[in-house]
Design goal:
Chains A, B: It comes from Lysobacter arvi. The structure is a homodimer. Chain A is α+β, with helices and mostly antiparallel strands. Chains A and B meet through helix 3 and helix 4 of A and helix 3 and helix 4 of B. Chain A binds a DNA duplex through helix 7.
Chain lengths: 254, 254
Amino acid sequence: MNSPLDLAHLRRSCSQCSLQQLCLPAGISGPELDRLDEIVRRRRPIARGERLFRIGDSLEAVYVARDGAFKTVTLSEDGDEQVLGFHLPGELIGLDALGGGAHRCEAVALGDANVCEVPFSQLTDVAAQVPGLQQQLLRVIGHSLNRDHDHMGMLVRRQANERIALFLHGLGERFRQIGQSSTQFKLPMSREDVARYLGLALETVSRGFTRLQEDGVIDVHGRRVEIVDIEELTRLAHGGEDEAPRTRRARSTP
Amino acid sequence: MNSPLDLAHLRRSCSQCSLQQLCLPAGISGPELDRLDEIVRRRRPIARGERLFRIGDSLEAVYVARDGAFKTVTLSEDGDEQVLGFHLPGELIGLDALGGGAHRCEAVALGDANVCEVPFSQLTDVAAQVPGLQQQLLRVIGHSLNRDHDHMGMLVRRQANERIALFLHGLGERFRQIGQSSTQFKLPMSREDVARYLGLALETVSRGFTRLQEDGVIDVHGRRVEIVDIEELTRLAHGGEDEAPRTRRARSTP
DNA sequence: CGTCGGGTTGAGGATCATCAAGTGATGTGG
DNA sequence: CCACATCACTTGATGATCCTCAACCCGACG
C-alpha cells in the first residue's frame, strides 16, 4: 500500500497539490476527487521552448502547469507570431480548441515546466457525473475568458505606458493568486513576448520599463521586477498622467 | 392540442428557430430538445439601448439574440466605455460572469431586439443529463473564446486600416454564418462603437471607411456597407500594402 | 425651419515604430 | 582563464501614423 511508487503518486496527486483550490479540483473531495485524479496524466518535465500542441492539432486534452509558465501564440500568414496569452500555474491551457475541435494556437513553454494533462473526453464524462466538477470546469473557463478580457483592456489602452503598467500590475495579481509575491517576481517571458502580447514594439516595452524605473515605480534588472510604488503603478495603469505627481522629475527639457 | 397558444409557442420554439444549428440546440432533438426548450424564456422585445444585465449583476441567465444585435462593454474608471464584443443572433451573451458569478460587463442592445433567456443553473442541470447539450454548451463557449481571440488579432495589428479591414471582413463572415449576405449588410453599431472596439479614434475609423471606399474595396453610405472587392479586403486585412497593387486607381480624381 | 446626433473632413503635433548601434550577461572553445 | 560569439536587452535618432481639436455636413425629427 505504501510502496515508494504509491508515495510518489500521492505526492503528485491533486489532493496534495498546492494549486488544488485554483485548479479543476476546487470544491471537490473524497471519491469524486479520486475519479478526477484517475484521469489526470502527469507528464514528464517539459523543456523550455517545447510545445504542448500545435495549430491544427485536434483537441485531445487540456493542460495545467504545475510549475513553469506557457505562452499561447498564433502565427500570422506573414510568419510573425502574436501572443494570445500567458499561462501561469493553475491556469488551463488548450481551451482554444473548444469551438472547432482543433487548436487555433500553439502552447509554448517559456521555461522548463511540469504539466498535468487531462484528456478532454474523459474530463467531460466525469464532469457530467460530478456536478461540482462541471461547475468548476465552467468557472475555470470563465477565468480564462476574464483574462482574455483583461488582455483586451490592455490592448485598447492607447498609451504604451498604460499598457505596460496594466500588464505588470495584472501579472503581479496573478502571482499573488498562486501564492507568490505580487510585487517581486521574475518575468517568465522575454521583452519580445511582452511586446507581441501588448501590440507594441520590443523597444517600446524596453523604454517603458526604463521609464517606470526612472520614475521610481518599479525596479528592473533584466527579468527581475520589483514593484516599488504599487499605488502609482495602479494610477498609471488607469490612465493617470504620465508625469509623477509628487516626484517632480526633469524630463530632458531642452 | 393545436390551440392558438400552442401554435404561438411552437412558432417560437427552438425546434422552429432558424438559428437552431448555431445555438444551444445544435445536435439535440426529440425529448432532449424539449427539455431544453422548457427552460428557455422568450422575453418581450428589447428596445435599443436597453441592457440585459449590468456590471456587478449576479449570473442569472445567459442570453441569445433571436434577432437584433448587442454590444458588451466595460466602463473604465474615468467613465468612458470599452467595447468588448458585438453579439449577432445566435451568439451567447453573458458568459463574462462564468468566472466570478457576477457580470463584469454590460450587454446593451444596439437596436430593437428579441432575445431568448436561459436560466443558468437550469441550463447546467440539463447539460449534466443531456450529453449532447453539454458538448454543445462547451462548443458555443469555445466559439465565444474564438471571437475574443479574433478580436485580439485586430487589436494587435498596428495599422488602423488593417484593423478596419479585418473588422469588416470578420463581420461579413459572421453575417454569412447566420444566413445573411456576407458582402452587403447594415452595421448594427455606430462608428464610435467600432472605434472603441478597435482601440482607435472615431475619426480614424471614419477615415478608414472613406479610404476603403476611395480604393474601390467597399461601398459605404452611413451604416450600409457593401464589400465590393473581397479579395482586396482580405489582402489588406492581412497586412498587404495600403496601395492597391494591380488596380491602379486615380484617387478622388474629379 | 432649426436643432441634434452621427458622420465626415482638415490641420497640427505627439507618440511610437523603425532602423541602427551599443551594452551586458552567458556560454563556448581554444 | 581568456577571447569570442551569441543572445537579450537598452538607448538614440528620425519619420510616419494616428490622436486631438475643430469645423463642417447631412439626414432625421419635432
